[in-house]
Design brief:
The protein is mainly beta. The chain has helices spanning 76-82, 96-103; strands spanning 2-11, 40-45, 49-56, 63-74, 132-135, 149-152. Helix content is 8%, strand content 25%. It binds a DNA duplex through residues 9, 11, 19-21, 24, 27-29, 43-49, 51, 53, 66, 68, 85, 95-98, 137-141, 160, 164-166.
Length: 178
DNA sequence: TCGCTGATCATCT
DNA sequence: GATGATCAGCGAA
């Protein structure tokens, strides 16, 4: 089956991005981010979900692109069987954990080479979208000022913006969430 | 459609 | 011992 990506976020390990898993160096979890580009970085989120990233940049950079959303273009029946909770086609891969569920990506796909035709998960280049929008990343509480989320303008599968979890005391931003 | 809450655990303090 | 790069289900508007 295949999904066309409609929304992604960038994270860098060069020290300027405290929201990145690689920000504290190559810990066991983030080690794959520091490896060669084109590999899959998979992490377990909130004790419930798996999310997928594509490692990018020169070896050792610790940078990756989080796959946030897409639309199913091949194999919608398979996607539906994997995500019975989806109420509409656009919910099949709308959000990073839903995307991995639809693609059946999990811990077994860690460090998969996305450019190797023999891999179970692969990344292909598709036609460029008509327009791309840029804005703040979703669901993080650090470095919210970096406009490192990119999505296809107008795509119905794009995540609704949410500010990060609980406010982090260091930065000035004090919203009323508790 | 919006807002809230529970689930559940690897990672880091 | 606290905290998330989240989602689904619920009730209310």
């Amino acid at each position: 089956m295949a999904v066309r990506l409609t929304e992604v976020e960038a994270y860098t390990g060069d020290g300027s991005d405290p929201a990145a898993h690689s920000h504290r160096g190559p810990t066991p979890r983030a080690a794959i981010m520091f490896g060669p580009p084109g590999r899959l970085y998979v992490y377990f989120s909130y004790g419930v979900h798996w999310c997928a990233n594509v490692v990018v940049g020169p070896d050792g950079t610790g940078s990756a692109v989080l796959l946030r959303a897409g639309e199913v273009v091949v194999g919608e029946d398979v996607a539906r069987s994997r995500r019975p909770a989806a109420r509409s086609a656009r919910d099949l891969a709308r959000g990073p954990a839903r995307l991995t569920q639809t693609l059946a990506i999990g811990p077994g796909d860690r460090d998969a080479d996305l450019l190797d035709p023999a891999s179970t998960v692969r990344l292909h280049r598709g036609p460029a979208p008509d327009a791309v929008s840029v804005g703040p990343r979703v669901g993080i509480s650090l470095a919210t000022e970096l406009p490192w989320r990119f999505w296809e303008t107008g795509a119905p599968t794009v995540s609704v913006f949410r500010a990060g979890g609980k406010p982090r005391r260091s930065t000035a931003g004090q919203d009323g969430r508790s």
